[in-house]
Amino acid sequence: LSLSNYKEVFGTSHLWRVVLNTFWVGFGTVGVSIIFGVPLGWLLNRTDLPLRSLFITMLAVTVIMPGLVKAMGWIMLLSPQVGIINKLLMGLFRLSEAPFDINSIWGIAFIQGLMLTPSMFFLISGPMRSLDPSLEEASEVVGANRWKTLLWITSPVLWPAILGGVIYIFMTGIAIFEVAGILGGLSDNRVLATELFLAVQPFEGSLEIKYGVAGVYGLLIMLPSLIGLFFYFQSIKQAHRYAVITGKGYRPKTFALGRVRLPAMLFVFLYLALAVFLPFLVLLWASLLPSL
């Protein structure tokens, strides 16, 4: 037994940059999944949004589209060299440089967040549907409007489910390889997952396979996950704070969207367009061209 593998990993000059990149990817992935997943969970489980069953089915279907395919599609949309959206904006506004660069840490986080949004959605859908409406009704009785009720009543009760989703998505986000690998993770935007890959599949330097070094990177990936699980277990220890005694016949209250129904539907379409339609259509278009 030896600590030489740890010495080699911690002796590299770029390790802390790799660790920082990994954390930014994890936090960015969580941020994107929350921005889309939590509103989608509320809209599709607690409101009178039309076509809810269809939208839920489409969210489930988005999971089958591989991350590699989504990454390739977004490269063709937002790459500084060949990105269709970048080229369009540069032509319209006479820009000398591309306004967006998907080959970055934030590009990796954006695509992974879109990939994992359905996970956040389904993790909070169960608690969202089973939420006792008597708490929200009591809030309205004392004069709170819909948004105050959502902020001060609904969100705190859902906090354990959201925290569980955040930890799961962070753990998954820092371990995903294919998106980081194709978006520059093997050159400029390295993360722990790509370092682990390069340790056992080297294509530069000595080309020596280093399983022990890969083991160290694997442990570094697991460490923040274990820390996150500790805080999650601390949260669910106090599950009694989120329990409500109620009768057998209660039904979750459905909120009427009213004038915001159209913006709500556009929000759902926006996510589906970003997660599936745009990358799929651009790949379909490219597959029919003799050259790009």
Outline the fold blueprint.
Blueprint: H1 4-10, H2 15-46, H3 52-62, H4 67-78, H5 84-93, H6 105-129, H7 133-141, H8 146-173, H9 178-185, H10 192-200, H11 211-236, H12 261-287
Helix pairs in contact: 1-11, 2-6, 2-8, 3-12, 4-6, 4-9, 4-12, 6-8, 7-8, 8-11, 10-11
Characteristics:
292 residues; mainly alpha; flat
Walk me through the structure:
This protein is mostly helical and 292 residues long. Helices cover 70% and strands 0% of the residues. The protein is built from twelve helices and no strands. It has helices at 4-10, 15-46, 52-62, 67-78, 84-93, 105-129, 133-141, 146-173, 178-185, 192-200, 211-236, 261-287. Helix 3 runs parallel beside helix 12, helix 4 crosses helix 6 and helix 4 (67-78) runs parallel beside helix 9.
What share of the residues does DSSP label as strand, in percent? under 5%
What value does the Rg take, in angstroms?
A: 22 Å
Average pLDDT: 86
Sheet with most strands: none
Give unreliable regions as ranges. none
What's the oligomerization state? Answer: single chain
H/E element order: HHHHHHHHHHHH
Distance between the termini: 53 Å
Shape: flat
How large is the count of helical segments? Answer: 12
Overall number of strands:
0
What is the percent of helical residues?
A: 55-70%
Overall structural class, as computed from helix and strand content, comes to mainly alpha
